[in-house]
Amino acid sequence: MLTGFNPELIQDLEGARQAIVALLNLVEELKSENQALRKEVQSLRDEINRLKGEQGKPDIKPNKPASAKSDHSSEAERRQRKAWRKQRKVERIQIDREETLRVDRGQLPADAVFKGYETAVVQDLRLQSDNVRFLKEKYHSPSQGSVHLAPLPAGYEGQFGPGIRSLVLTLYYASQMTEPKIAEFLGHLGVLISKGQISNLLIKQQDSWHDEKAAIWRAGLASTSWQHIDDTATRVNGENQHCHVVGNPYYTAYFTRPGKDRLTLIHLLQDSPEPQFLLNEQTAAWLDLFKTPQWAQRLVAGWPQGVWLVRRQLEALVQQHLSRLDEQQQARILEAAALTAYHAQSHVPVVTTLISDDARQFRHVTQNQALCWVHEGRHYKKLSPFVEHHRQLLDDFMKQFWRFYQQLQAYREHPTSKQAVRLRAQFDVLFSTVTGYQALDDLIAKTRTKQARLLLVLDFPELPLHNNPAELAARQRVRKRDISFGPRTSDGAAAWDTFMTLAETAKKLGINFYAYIQDRVSRTYYLPNLADLINQHSVLAYENAVPP
User: Fold this and answer.
1) Cys-Cys crosslink for 277: which of 137, 317, 337, 439, Cβ 3.0 to 4.6 Å?
2) Residue 160 near residue 189, CB atoms below 8 Å
3) How far apart are CA 33 and CA 40, in angstroms?
4) Exposed (0-12), middle (13-18) or buried (19+): which is 249, by Cβ within 10 Å?
5) Which residues, 6+ apart, have CB-to-CB distance to 324 below 8 Å?
6) Where are the domains of the chain?
7) Distance between CA atoms of 438 and 416, rounded to whole angstroms?
């Protein structure tokens, strides 16, 4: 506020300019405060109305004001325009059969000459039941007292064959249909199946699928030194949990966990039944980084060194010797030991770089962290300047922001040390800008503090500049959650994670998800494992990247 402002001290144009700048920033501050208070008042009014048995004000987002010139972090702004080529639809259609259509010879003129064929591709689908009554031969051996019964064909288990089981899994996990709608749809095709039976097909006896997911996870971690990562809220049996999404160009994996803290993330990357902990000199370095009190560090140094521990063992040591530390400091002890164990392990590839937003749980987990430029741009998008001059300042800066982003994209294609030096200097200049719009200047200063993580691509050009793949994968889980509300059991959560992993990974590898599911359910195994395909793609990418 301008409580100490004295207008009589203005004696020149520069003083007047400074006063105007201060007043405009005050207007923005008061406008923002007013909007926050209005929102709070409306929320309180809605709560009062609900207590009275009435409805609150509907949450309808207002239209953008006419003065809002651009979406500062839109896809259009950050992407470079590419030459557009329309791909013929017929080129992407799989032809299942071919039929020759002949002209009625009786309708042809006498001088008609054959000129070949004109192609017409028509898409169609046959949806009909294939209910089978199997007559299984049965033999009895009196001498051995044994019964010999002909087995069902591969893939036929229980009341429903591989076609129904494959379709149910695809409709639910890949097409986002609900269980009641799947039951209704199958009923129209003459299939008598209850919602409970559909639920069993979706959740029960999925061990082989869980094994496939585990193989995808291992192959995905080994396929690149870096990984995209994000998380989103989910619910399991009505309780709040978190879905973690990890991936790269070859796969996407989903993991539902109760927490989203750093320890949860480390355990996820450890890929072990329970968290592993290790104490050594590296643990001491982590504790120092986490600003653990020196007396506590000395006590930890006296605990068994070089010995692998499980959580209950380490927690017992903490409670016995470090009970006067607060809960957060105790958590840092566990995180330091978990990080040490993760980087010392050999059974699972250790990720070198995480590409993420700036959430605290992602920090210090891997050797490097690369921040998402698109997410950084969204911070600026949240600004809603009231003053026209400030809107113009924001627009001008964001044009420079995305222009710099495009230069980083170009660098990834043709990296040189000279260009890296130039881009670092350009970053320093751009994010040292002082516009006079205080809220914008504060954001610019914050971005500057993230320089090392935003410019990691200059050292490792193979790194993507944004985390969009993980964010889009997280949105898939959100859509699934909004439609089906969330799994009701831990088995259901595991099934959601597994089949969404399979669906998204198949999509990235160019594999038809329904065909893959049907191949596995029918036990034909014509299609290769997704994990093997990940390995093949990563090896091929490496060979193409390494000069001969």
Assistant:
1) 337
2) no
3) 11
4) middle
5) none
6) 151-213+488-545, 222-362, 373-466
7) 36
